[in-house]
């Protein structure tokens, strides 16, 4: 994958939830370009709610969400992709009745809008349609199995292939920040390993990646830094190596055997 330019993401002292139900209590998280930051913790700790809050699906009572130098706290979800933010949902992240190609081409409207504004380079601004076709080919080169299945309906794909399709569709929009919500849930070990490898490649391309994952040990092994959420608060944050090597954190919060 060619070098991409990410943007720093900052969540600053955010209190958020649904209606009057507050789930996040003063959460602060940051991730930088080319960095893979993992969010882990017990079930019900607010991990997925954090991603939904960043994208605009919850009510923020206090605090801010900043991408690059832009405060996006009040930007609605349907506008976030145009700012370079991509969100891959845990489930229902593809359109099963559409073909693989049709799913991928749904990203065209966002790509063309960003290209015409000059955000994707001079070549893309001069000929957005051509640039989109080239971007589609680039992404298909990353996911050769999707290329083989372009005419198939997404409903016929395996679980791992569906996740690859969801990630591929997000990549076509040229995101600067990518949010991934438990992308390996219910996948076979082989499929999960392929998805993890893809996520690492995305981060190393320069995109800012925030990953929520139930498989805490594997997420920490591939990540750069980690945050442990417990009951809607950050209980600990540091390098993934520090978290994996901590004598108590794994046992207390992550169900890991003591090193």
UniProtKB/TrEMBL annotation:
One of its GO terms (molecular function) is ATP binding. SUPFAM superfamilies: P-loop containing nucleoside triphosphate hydrolases. The keyword ATP-binding applies. The keyword Nucleotide-binding applies. Residues 9-256 form the ABC transporter domain. InterPro entries: AAA+_ATPase (IPR003593), ABC_transporter-like_ATP-bd (IPR003439), ABC_transporter-like_CS (IPR017871), BCAA_Transport_ATP-bd_LivF (IPR052156), P-loop_NTPase (IPR027417). SMART domains: AAA. One of its GO terms (biological process) is L-amino acid transport. It holds the Pfam family ABC_tran. This is ABC transporter ATP-binding protein. It comes from Pyrodictium delaneyi. Belongs to the ABC transporter superfamily. PANTHER family: BRANCHED-CHAIN AMINO ACID TRANSPORT ATP-BINDING PROTEIN LIVF-RELATED (PTHR43820:SF7), HIGH-AFFINITY BRANCHED-CHAIN AMINO ACID TRANSPORT ATP-BINDING PROTEIN LIVF (PTHR43820). Keywords: Amino-acid transport, ATP-binding, Nucleotide-binding, Transport.
């Amino acid at each position: 994958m060619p070098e991409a330019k990410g943007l720093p993401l900052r969540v600053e002292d955010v209190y958020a939830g649904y209606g009057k139900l507050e789930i996040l209590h003063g959460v602060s998280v940051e991730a930088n370009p080319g960095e893979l930051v993992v969010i882990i913790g017990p079930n019900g700790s607010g991990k997925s709610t954090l991603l939904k809050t960043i994208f605009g699906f919850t009510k923020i009572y206090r605090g801010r969400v900043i991408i690059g130098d832009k405060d996006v706290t009040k930007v609605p979800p349907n506008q976030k992709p145009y700012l370079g933010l991509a969100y891959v949902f845990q489930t229902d992240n593809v359109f099963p009745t559409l073909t693989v190609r049709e799913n991928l081409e749904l990203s065209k409207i966002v790509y063309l809008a960003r290209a015409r504004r000059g955000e994707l380079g001079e070549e893309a601004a001069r000929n957005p349609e051509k640039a989109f076709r080239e971007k589609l080919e680039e992404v298909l080169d990353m996911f050769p199995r999707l290329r083989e299945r372009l005419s198939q309906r997404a409903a016929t794909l395996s679980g791992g292939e569906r996740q690859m399709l969801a990630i591929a569709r997000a990549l076509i929009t040229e995101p600067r920040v990518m949010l991934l919500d438990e992308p390996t849930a219910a996948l076979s070990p082989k499929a999960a390993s392929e998805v993890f490898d893809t996520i690492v490649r995305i981060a190393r391309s320069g995109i800012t990646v925030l990953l929520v994952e139930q498989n805490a040990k594997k997420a920490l092994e591939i990540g750069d830094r980690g945050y442990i959420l417990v009951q809607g608060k950050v209980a600990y944050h540091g390098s993934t190596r520090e978290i994996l090597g901590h004598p108590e954190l794994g046992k207390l919060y992550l169900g890991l055997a003591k090193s």
